[in-house]
Amino acid sequence: MAEDPFLSRWEDNNGTECQNQYMPAGRPSATSARELELVALDLFASQGFAQTSVEQIAVGAGVSKRTFFRYFESKSAVLWHDFDNEVDSLRDAFSRIPAKTPLMTAIHEVVLSVNRYRAEDVPELRTRMGLIGSDRDLQASAALHYDAWERTVAEFAAARLDQPAESLQPMAIGRTTLAACRAAYDVWLARADANLTTYLDEALHALSSGFRTPSK
Amino acid sequence: MAEDPFLSRWEDNNGTECQNQYMPAGRPSATSARELELVALDLFASQGFAQTSVEQIAVGAGVSKRTFFRYFESKSAVLWHDFDNEVDSLRDAFSRIPAKTPLMTAIHEVVLSVNRYRAEDVPELRTRMGLIGSDRDLQASAALHYDAWERTVAEFAAARLDQPAESLQPMAIGRTTLAACRAAYDVWLARADANLTTYLDEALHALSSGFRTPSK
What we know:
- The structure is a homodimer of 216-residue chains.
- Chain A is mainly alpha-helical and 216 residues long.
- Chain A contains eleven helices and no strands.
- Helices cover 71% and strands 0% of the residues of chain A.
- In chain A, α8 crosses α9.
């Protein structure tokens, strides 16, 4: 879904103007993408990911299989949709961050800016994480999605450091930034007491200070 | 393999005295474990992981299936053997680090101390990484092995910080330490020009300085 031109649910929540701004003429509406996602999550949760066909999802949403594939390139893409959208948002936000913002501050600000998860999103996200953990193919595919996220951060760091993206510092920055975010995400999912931003902020602050700050 | 009492290949290389020190009476010898590993890697590389049976590995090494299972709990455990041994070594080294060594310095020293990979180990490790990347089940199992490594670091950090291991700072330290090491490992595997320790040292130094140091 690297080139998915449609809106994520969080952009949906921001209102119609924002939707119109990004929606190419003749493309299916964002509402339907979200409907397909909800139908798919319900089916996956009730009968299992492997046991659910794209056809069942399409029927459940009242659309054709062909329409399903206009939104998602595969069944598993439904579960990674939000995550892959975030990669696109990261790349976009990095392209707009002022050059004078220090590297780790820029990464901190950009990662926070693309995140919109709130405490009320926890039940759905728990379902999604549980589904990914329940299926070997989905677990195996996780690394690919994580790599794309890490690479986006590594490429920004590499440009700032004037190094190839595959050299040690940019790669370490990309990997450790995602690692810090995943720690924040896991603790947030377990506690469900605030917006994810609160936890991301603490984790990224700890990362950029070399974990020298007194912990809260 | 969390309780694997046998020696890794690196301990083998250190000589007989070291082996005797750790080898319980009546257990199979470490040499045989390494032989099984080499036979298995050859078979996996030539005919594929999924297409290789435990029986074929046992026959190739001239032992029974039962003997195979005295060393490895499963076929995939052969590929994760070194990594899982490192988790045990980490835990052991953390238990011996002086309390006055600062947290991130302690993690840096312990991670370097348990690593023994040299430039000449690269071909075998590339084979191993390639095999893990080639099989869905092996890819899916990676997260479990990584989690155990991260948890070992997180538990040490938690004890030092007087926090539960599942709180944010210890989890972020565990995850980002592995992330930094994996970046070092990948760059080292691509370059194969030094011992892994050189790259781990740079990555962990960058991590504990919040990536503020000038890059090399």
